[in-house]
Specification:
There is one protein chain. This protein is 0% helix and 55% strand. It contains no helices and eleven strands. The strands form two sheets. Strands 2, 4, 5, 6, 9, 10 and 11 form a seven-stranded mixed beta sheet that branches. It has a four-stranded antiparallel beta sheet with strand order 1-3-8-7, with no helix packed on it. A hairpin with a 5-residue loop joins strand 7 and strand 8.
């Protein structure tokens, strides 16, 4: 089992930046893919960015060029650097960890990001 805790959310003005962190504990050796998802009020949860254990990354078109996902070498911390934030980036951001072999995933509790002037 993997436990995930997000931090770093908050209120920021349009054009500003935030850095989200996700701390993983437990069976982290089995994590193959980690990712950030977000859910805005009244909308479905959507993928923001993912990173594999090999370091490959993929981004939603809406955040390409503005957001950057990374993971530390120990594999127990993941980050999302968010630049040039827009009001439409406002959402609860969730951390996810997935094990391909067991087909099991874990979610964090989420952290609120609000982009507003």
């Amino acid at each position: 089992q993997v436990q995930l805790v997000e931090s770093g959310g908050g209120l920021v003005q349009p054009g500003g930046s935030l850095r989200l962190s996700c701390a993983a504990s437990g069976s982290i050796a089995g994590i193959d893919v980690m990712g950030w998802y977000r859910q805005a009020p009244g909308k479905q949860r959507e993928l923001v960015a993912i990173i594999t254990s090999g370091g490959s990354t993929n981004y939603a078109d809406s955040v390409k060029g503005r957001f950057s996902i990374s993971r530390d070498s120990a594999g127990n911390m993941m980050y999302l650097q968010m630049n040039s934030l827009k009001p439409e980036d406002t959402a609860v951001y969730y951390c996810n960890a997935y094990n391909i072999g067991t087909r099991k995933g874990s979610w964090g509790q989420g952290t609120q990001v609000t982009v507003s002037s």
